[in-house]
Amino acid sequence: MNGGRVNACLKADDLSFWRGERAVVSGLSFTAAPGDRIAVLGANGSGKTTLIRTILGFSPYRGTLEVEGREVRDRPKEARKAAAAVFGDADTQLLMPTVYDELAFSLKAAEERAGGPDVRAFAGRFGLVPLLDRHPSQLSSGEKRKVLLAQSLGRRPSILLLDEPTSDLDARGSRRLREMLAQVPQTIILATHHYDLAMALCRKAVVLGGGKAAVYEDIRRLFDDPAALDRWELL
Q1: I need a surface site. Which of 42, 62, 147, 232 has the fewest CB within 10 A?
Q2: Are 36 and 6 in contact (CB under 8 A)?
Q3: Is-contact 99 123, C-beta < 8 A?
Q4: For residues 217 and 64, is the Cβ–Cβ distance under 8 A?
Q5: What digits encode the pLDDT tens for the residues 174-202?
Q6: Is the pTM of this model over 0.85?
Q7: What is the spatial order of strands in the sheet that 37-41 belongs to?
Q8: Residue 219: phi, psi to the nearest 5?
Q9: Could you give the CA distance from residue 63 to residue 81 in angstroms, rounded to a whole number?
Q10: 175: DSSP letter
Q11: pLDDT tens string 33-90
Q12: How many Å apart are CA 149 and CA 157, to the nearest integer?
């Protein structure tokens, strides 16, 4: 499976961001090199979703936040072009009349041809050809998730932002999504409560909680440390 170019670079330096008037996280610094896979972990309300929104240019911040070498606050549209996001609620993201239209729109956004043969060929990479004529509301949770992932990759982003991508999937659907994600070349930022998915897919971890942040260059060091898991309320 090939979702496009792989030239991502995401850099945060002394990053602070907030939700409403409340500071969520202060002093976060990390770098995602091309092809990196980083888990973003933390209890509910720790700022995982807000971090995703900040990377997309939808939330204010202080400090440095660069996508492909460009400061997000200065060029938010370019950040959203480089980084595609898949959020947990599929129904708010699939708005076209058919799966075909969803994929055609994403391919057009990437300035690729969106004629019939091209859409069908792209759908075939994800096993979506049998679903092309169906309305998204007729799909199962797992099928919706596959369409969302294909739609995002069709835009040819260099960074894939995933916010609780397995939130409405059963064990089988989660396993299939993990297998799909293992094949994509993009840099992946994965915000999740599913630690088995984080361990299987990601090499590094950013942990958020209590307004603070920590970066683990080896995610196994985090999960091998019961005291750290308790401190960050991950147990």
Answers
A1: 62
A2: no
A3: yes
A4: no
A5: 888 888 899 999 999 999 999 999 999 99
A6: yes
A7: 83-86, 159-163, 187-191, 37-41, 204-209, 212-216
A8: -60, -25
A9: 22
A10: H
A11: 999 999 999 999 999 999 999 999 999 999 999 999 999 999 999 999 999 999 878 8
A12: 11
Strands (E), the chain: 10-19, 22-32, 37-41, 61-67, 70-71, 83-86, 159-163, 187-191, 204-209, 212-216
Tell me how far apart the alpha carbons of residues 170 and 146 are, in angstroms, rounded to a whole number.
14
Strand, coil or helix: 92: helix
Distance between CA 85 and CA 3 in Å, rounded?
14
Radius of gyration for the alpha carbons in the chain, expressed in angstroms and rounded: 18
What tokens appear for 87 in the block? Answer: 């959020």
| Alpha carbon distances (Å) from 95 to 23, 135, 147, 151, 217 | 33, 9, 12, 12, 38
Q: 3-class SS at 17?
A: strand
